[in-house]
Amino acid sequence: MKISINRLKTYITLSESPEEIAALLTRSGLEVEGVEEFVSIPGGLEGVVIGEVLTCEKHPDADKLSLTTVDIGSAVVPIVCGAPNVAQGQKVVVATVGAKLYPSEGEPFEIKKAKIRGQVSEGMICAEDEIGLGSSHAGIMVLDTDLPNGTPASEYFEVSQDHILEIGLTPNRADAASHLGVARDLKALVGKPIALTEEQQLTVEKAGPSISVKVQNAADCPRYAGVVLTDLKVGPSPQWLQNFLRSLDLEPINNVVDITNFILHDLGQPLHAFDANKISGQKIIVGKLSKGTPFVTLDGKERKLSGEELMINDAKGGMCIAGIFGGNHSGVSDETTSIFLESAYFSPDVIRKGSQVHGLKTDASFRFERGTDPNMPVYALKKAVALLQEIAGGKVSSEIVDLYPEPVQDFVIEVTYGHVNRLIGKKIEPTEVKSILESLDIKVQNETSEGFTAIVKPYRVDVTREADIIEEILRIHGFHQVELSENLRTDYLAEHPVKDMNKLQYRLTEMLAGQGYFEMITNSLTKPVYAEKSGFLDSAVNVEIYNKLSEDLGVMRQSLLFSGLEVLAHNINRRQTDLKCFEFGTVYQKTADGYNEGRRLAIFHSGNRSSESWIESEKPFGFADLYATVDRILERLNIDLGQVTMIEAAPFAYGLVLKLGDKVLGTVGLLDEKILKLAEVRQDVWFVELDWDLLTKKASGLKKYQDISKFPEVRRDLSLVIDKAVTYDQVKAVAEKAGGKLVQKIGVFDVYQGDKIDTGKKAYALSFYLQDQENTLTDKVIEKTMSKLIQAFQDQVGAIIRS
Q1: I need a labelling partner for 174 at 20 to 30 A (CA). Which of 199, 681, 696, 743 fits?
Q2: Distance in angstroms (rounded) separating the CA atoms of residues 342 and 226
Q3: 681-721, pLDDT tens digit by residue?
Q4: 340 contacts 284 by C-beta, under 8 angstroms
Q5: Any long-range contacts for 86-89 (C-beta under 8 Å, 24+ apart)?
Q6: Residues 408-466: pLDDT tens digits?
Q7: 519 lies in a domain?
Q8: DSSP character for 152?
């Protein structure tokens, strides 16, 4: 949001610099993101003056050049001019020596004393494009003015200079979405009053069209006001108004539209002007139209109405999407002579819905959907009428219509001094509390030693509770004035630093990117059909979107699987078939108590792990590739994996369930063809989804170190024949328990299943690395350890030891 310092100064006397004003506003919660200098004409026409051509003769050595002498006030200077229309007696625009010009096209340049075809030239008589005023280069500008020679051209062209504040407005501060709103905060911050013009009385000057107004649902439109003006002359706005709009990055259109934009940014009250002669039946009906009704907006696009948006209608149908966007046929044009000027207070909910349905975000909807001031419509309407009378010659042709059946009441809030001091963290004297609140137009009533009653005007939509009142006191008193408690001590800190999820995520992102993975960021909204047809997601716990933009974005995702598969499908369809991708994202579920969301880490492998080359043939990704990545993640976070069990259920053709203690960490495996078909992926995909919240909770930032043993390592191998149902994790657990601290590492170097062993059996060839940290292992100790291992395998997993 852009705010003009010049305009602020029409409300409140400010001696502070723009930077000081920015610091004050930021400190109070209106964060100023930048301060920019605005000049309505580039360079401000510095060094450019009004001059008078005293003499004009042909150049002796050039047919198209003229020799002139020009009175620039401080001197009479010779200037060589190439314009065909230069003549004696003209008032002209002169760029003096040293002036820097900013032409409409091309780079800026400086005027220097020069010799042109042997004749001295000390300046330049300017065309409009040479000083950035237009595009014409047909000749020099000839002025009709009585201003004395030497008058700065900036005075003649009303050059405006300003400083513009760029405020990052937070959603709760709808009241500050205008110059008046910002001035209200400055009133409290600098302790100076605001000068508001009094609400003037309008007199009907000339009878015009009699337009009736009907509001069908006061809940959607609690207040609707309007007035008819005739004898308007639509045309360009005066320079001051154009400069104001341009300073806010708005392009002037015509005087009527520019005035409505001025009021919106000045007072925060959106207005809309209808061509009165285009209002069918001389009726305005505020209500909803049936679903599917076509409506053409100002941008020329036909939109199908949803039936939820509020419309401004005439006897034939829609004229405007209320509070959002005007219609194509009822707007003001150059031929317009009469208007109906609307000023209303719409329900934020109905405007928000309409804006979302059509994807329309306008300056008006920005304010209406956050909440405008219900007491402002008539005041803003009268101020706009005064400007229309002054600038467009309009005549008031009707009484003001003001339908306001149930006025919005002030908020009444009970406040306790004890709560004020407790939440702020220091004692603030009641006199200061009262002074701050009254400077914010919050009345203080029923004062006692314990507290008071605060009366808050309804334009402060964010101040409805005691905590909100306390926040208002604190932001004006100043967060920086709340001292640290004397009791604050470092021994209150935890023994270990709090885990930073963002740092852990960044650490893993670096690791994965370094291993050739690409990070994905996908939409949290997904298709309901995934939960319905996947076989492992429950559609009953889908978090549905009420105002969905489409069926494809109808629910919040329960898993990162399908949003990731959509990315894979997009790439595979474009012949990018070898993919290693990952994503950190949030998943959502509906619960009996409300909603639940959790963070997940998903990793995808698809295609080949290495491309075909003269060194080796292509190698597709396998289970080991993905599991190795999971292992590296756990190692990086210093987490020891617990139980691992097989899974042959959706979404996997086969895979593993990984656990930390009794909690499921995630699943890893090859995706089932049905799942791939549902996401339109036409090649195998390996997938893992890990519980990032659980990983973060279990992660340790501590590094584990130990001395390298001075004593040699010994390897012994065993071949076991075991049932197929026995997993490697079971075998490993038996070995670690039986071998004790001497077993440093266990490896599998061969697995066999075939006709050389019994049906239902498999053979593992295992390697055991034995090492004692304090002594050299003897043959006796080694044999004893291996005997324990053999006995444990035979007893606990029914193994047959192959010789």
Answers
A1: 199
A2: 4
A3: 999 999 999 999 999 998 876 566 677 888 899 999 999 99
A4: yes
A5: 86/53, 86/56, 86/125, 86/139, 86/140, 87/53, 87/56, 88/53, 88/54, 88/55, 88/56, 89/52, 89/53
A6: 999 999 999 999 999 998 899 999 999 999 999 999 999 999 999 999 999 999 999 99
A7: yes
A8: B
Assess contact for 527 and 551: CB atoms under 8 A: yes
Helix (H) or strand (E) holding 590: strand 579-591
Q: Do 305 and 352 belong together in one domain? A: yes
Q: Is 11 a member of any domain?
A: yes
Question: Sign of torsion, CA 177 179 185 186?
Answer: positive
Asked whether residue 199 is assigned to any structural domain, the reply reads no
The last residue of a domain, from among 462, 477, 492 = 477
Are 383 and 422 found together in one domain? no
Residues 543, 671 within the same domain: yes
If you search the block for the tokens 């005439």, which residue do you land on? 314
Distance, in Å, from the CA atom of 199 to the CA atom of 381, rounded to the nearest integer, reads: 10
Closest CA to 267 of 161, 411, 378: 378
The phi and psi torsions of 327 (rounded to 5 degrees) equal: -90, 160
- Taking only Cα atoms into account, the Rg of the chain, rounded to an integer number of angstroms, comes to 39
For residue 97, list its beta bridge partners.
Answer: none
Task: Tell me the C-alpha distance between 669 and 653, whole Å.
Answer: 7
- Burial of 644: CB neighbours in 10 Å, binned 0-12, 13-18, 19+: middle
Answer for the pair 337, 370: CB distance below 8 angstroms, yes or no. no
* d(C-alpha 503, C-alpha 506), whole Å: 5
Q: Give whole-number Cα distances, 285 to 215, 224, 303, 341, 343, in Å.
A: 6, 11, 20, 14, 14
**3-class state of residue 593 by DSSP:** coil
State both tokens at 679: 């996401």
- Amino acid letter, 554: G
C-alpha 43/C-alpha 103 separation (Å) is 10
Q: Which residue type sits at 590?
A: K
pLDDT tens digits, 293-306: 999 999 889 999 99
| Cα distances (angstroms) measured from residue 663 to each of 537, 697, 732 | 19, 12, 21
Q: How far apart are CA 245 and CA 253, in angstroms?
A: 10
Report the distance separating Cα 464 and Cα 440, nearest Å: 14
Q: What is the pLDDT of residue 722?
A: 93
Residue 571's φ and ψ, nearest 5 degrees, are -75, -45
Map tokens 């990984």 to a residue.
658
* Secondary structure letter of residue 536 according to DSSP: S
- Count of domains forming the chain: 6
584 vs 563: CA distance, rounded Å: 12
Cα angle 100, 104, 110 (rounded to 5 degrees) comes to: 15
